[in-house]
């Protein structure tokens, strides 16, 4: 099966990194088309051996990109087009139809209550989304939370499938050598209590709450991994609050930084999955999060290192102080996270492809027990959320 993944951009980000991981594990022969901003992840995907085609889109309304994408899809003779992120879903579905591709899958990575990928959810944004969604075959939601939001929008339940994000569990595991190496590089003592966060520096992530929470904590360093338009303002805020904050920027080695941290804080109230939280737990880190659908969809009590906090600096400060008093602990990931292993997730998505195209059903590795994911809106409680 030949698949073309169409994505808005390939700078460092959750959806972009997720695509790279999937490409490493899926069975389909795949290529990638990036509409704009072919950044560090595009280079990494090419280095992995997957072709990346640059469409050269200059903005949201650059309609000249559409015929270029149509020509690429026609020339590639793809069996299926898979789109990721809002702009790519809109243009990619239209282009696939114009190119004569009948099988179109889209993954909805970031649909919140009020925003989609940081874009405010206006009536116009929703109408355009729904109009182009009808051109596709199936929309994949990364969590049951996203699936329920899509259904509430009016996307037919029969067109929604739930396939969670996946992580490379082995790569995320705690590494004491990497912990020491990063601390030496950053000039951090071995016993320094390090609070971390990972994500785009945008208003919806509420990184400022972590800085305010750390203001009156002594002997604490905050590691902020990621980049975005709020970096300058957050740097200034850290200086005003007299907080020792280290802005790491974008990096391909998040696992090493997770090993360096002593606790991770995820203060966003509008997460649609919570990939960073799952990666942190896989590193054996305790986690404070405001919202994390990925945790909601695991058995109750299966992740004792995860703690919910309100989006309030005082509550976060209390949680950080308690973790600092508790001191170091054994960095062991919860066994339940095996269900989020990227190889299993990729196999579930392969089965979605086969269901959509009518190909023979793909069998999952029989040595791996199925994880009881919450059913998608069109599934019975005992059916596979990936259609397989």
Task: Describe the structure in your own words.
- With 388 residues, the protein is α/β, with parallel strands linked by helices.
- It folds into two domains: 2-166 and 341-357, Glycogen Phosphorylase B (Rossmann fold); 169-337, 3-Layer(aba) Sandwich (Rossmann fold).
- Helices cover 38% and strands 16% of the residues.
- It has 15 helices and 15 strands.
- The protein has helices at 14-25, 40-48, 65-76, 86-98, 123-133, 144-153, 169-172, 176-186, 208-214, 231-241, 254-260, 275-282, 293-296, 313-326, 342-357, and strands at 2-7, 29-34, 52-54, 80-84, 104-108, 115-116, 119-120, 138-141, 160-162, 193-198, 220-225, 244-249, 263-266, 287-289, 306-308.
- The strands form three sheets. The chain has a seven-stranded parallel β-sheet with strand order 3-2-1-4-5-8-9, sandwiched between helices. Strands 12-11-10-13-14-15 form a six-stranded parallel β-sheet, sandwiched between helices.
- The longest helix has 16 residues, at 342-357.
- The chain is globular, with a radius of gyration of 21 Å.
- The chain starts with a strand and ends in a 31-residue tail after the last helix.
- The relative contact order is 0.13.
- Mean pLDDT is 89; it is low at 361-388.
């Amino acid at each position: 099966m030949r698949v073309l993944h169409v994505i808005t951009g390939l700078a460092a980000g959750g959806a972009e990194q997720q695509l790279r991981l999937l490409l490493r594990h899926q069975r389909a022969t795949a290529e990638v088309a990036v509409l704009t901003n072919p950044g560090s992840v595009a280079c990494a995907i090419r280095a992995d051996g997957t072709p990346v085609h640059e469409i050269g889109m200059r903005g949201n309304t650059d309609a000249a990109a559409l015929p270029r994408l149509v020509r690429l899809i026609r020339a590639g003779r793809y069996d299926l087009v898979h789109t990721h992120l809002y702009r790519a879903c809109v243009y990619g579905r239209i282009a696939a139809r114009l190119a004569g591709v009948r099988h179109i899958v889209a993954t909805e990575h970031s649909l919140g209550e009020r925003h989609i990928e940081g874009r405010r959810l206006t009536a116009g944004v929703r109408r355009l989304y729904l109009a182009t969604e009808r051109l596709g075959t199936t929309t994949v939601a990364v969590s049951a939370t996203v699936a329920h939001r899509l259904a509430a929008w009016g996307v037919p339940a029969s067109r929604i499938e739930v396939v969670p994000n996946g992580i490379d569990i082995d790569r995320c595991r705690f590494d004491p050598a990497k912990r020491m190496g990063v601390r030496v590089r950053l000039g951090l003592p071995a016993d320094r209590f390090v609070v971390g966060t990972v994500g785009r520096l945008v208003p919806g992530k509420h990184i400022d709450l972590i800085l305010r929470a750390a203001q009156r904590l002594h002997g604490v360093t905050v590691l902020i991994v990621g980049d975005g338009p709020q970096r300058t303002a957050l740097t200034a805020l850290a200086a005003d609050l007299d907080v020792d904050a280290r802005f790491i920027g974008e990096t391909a080695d998040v696992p090493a930084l997770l090993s360096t941290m002593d606790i991770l804080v995820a203060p966003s109230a509008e997460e649609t999955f919570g990939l960073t939280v799952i990666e942190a737990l896989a590193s054996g880190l305790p986690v404070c999060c405001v919202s994390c659908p990925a945790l909601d969809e695991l058995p109750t009590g299966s992740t004792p290192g995860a703690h919910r906090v309100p989006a309030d600096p005082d509550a976060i400060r209390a949680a950080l102080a308690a973790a600092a008093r508790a001191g170091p602990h054994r960095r062991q990931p919860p066994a339940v996270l095996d269900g989020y292993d990227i190889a299993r997730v990729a196999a579930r998505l392969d089965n979605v492809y086969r269901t959509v195209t009518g190909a023979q059903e793909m069998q999952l590795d029989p040595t791996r027990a199925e994880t009881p994911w919450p059913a998608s809106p069109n599934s019975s409680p005992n059916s596979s959320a990936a259609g397989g």
